[in-house]
Amino acid sequence: MSVLLFRLRSVPDDEAAEIRDLLTQNSIDYYETPGGNWGISMAAIWLKDESQLQEARSLIEAYQQERFARVRGEHERLRREGKKRTLMDEIKENPLQVIFYLAITAGLIYIFTKPFFAIGK
What we know:
61% of the residues lie in helices and 11% in strands. It has helices at residues 13-25, 53-81, 87-93, 95-119; strands at 3-7, 30-33, 44-47. By secondary structure, it is mainly alpha-helical. Helix 3 crosses helix 4 (95-119). It has four helices and three strands; from the N terminus they run E-H-E-E-H-H-H. The protein has two domains: 1-84, Alpha-Beta Plaits; 85-121. The longest helix has 29 residues, at 53-81. The protein has a three-stranded antiparallel β-sheet with strand order 1-3-2, covered by helices on one side.
């Protein structure tokens, strides 16, 4: 009987591909269900053989710990080298776009809060 192994909602494409490769390399039979056109269905990886569940979960757990350490190290390296993008970098590179988005945000806040202030008058 099939058993749910890994949900793919909000999982980056590279991580999903690495998990598929990990399962394939370790000869674990699985299949994948898509999220559908509107994301209503459950996108997931399912095991065909329930007896492989513990092995697959331990492989994925080890992979996720290794991925966390790798991504964290990359983030720290970029921060140390001064290559990590910040909000100020974005403002310096696209000042008109930032001003435009701030104006839209302020306009929306005004439109949505105006009725509440009108009630008090």
